[in-house]
Amino acid sequence: MPPSSAPRPEKDHPSERITGVVIMCLFCDEDETTTTLDHGVCLDCKEAIERAEAAGLTGYVPDTFLARPHAEVEVAARMAELLPAPRSRR
Questions:
Q1: What is the 3-state secondary structure of 31-44?
Q2: 22, 90, 44, 74: which is closest to 82 by C-alpha?
Q3: In this predicted model, what pLDDT tens digit does every residue of 75-89 receive, in sequence order?
Q4: CA pair distance 77, 85, nearest whole angstrom
Q5: pTM for the model
Q6: Are 23 and 40 in contact (CB under 8 A)?
Q7: Rounded to whole angstroms, how far apart are CA atoms 57 and 44?
Q8: Which of 45, 51, 71, 83 could be joined to 27 by an S-S link, Cβ 3.0–4.6 Å?
């Protein structure tokens, strides 16, 4: 499309910039300025998670989220399985 001939509205305020970032706990939203975070989780929540796991209260975890070793795959052989066989020309 051709550029619009209508003038663009002027900005009433200067552009905004992010000048700082505060990281928060994934579970209770405590920020890093008020508590210590370990991999995005505050120490209180981490202790609660460890107690729940020790009691077997981890809840349902889908198989796709569980870590399991990956088998080595021969790429050329796998591609041969996935691609259709070449067709002969008549």
A1: ECCCCCEECCEEHH
A2: 74
A3: 888 888 888 766 666
A4: 13
A5: 0.45
A6: yes
A7: 17
A8: 45
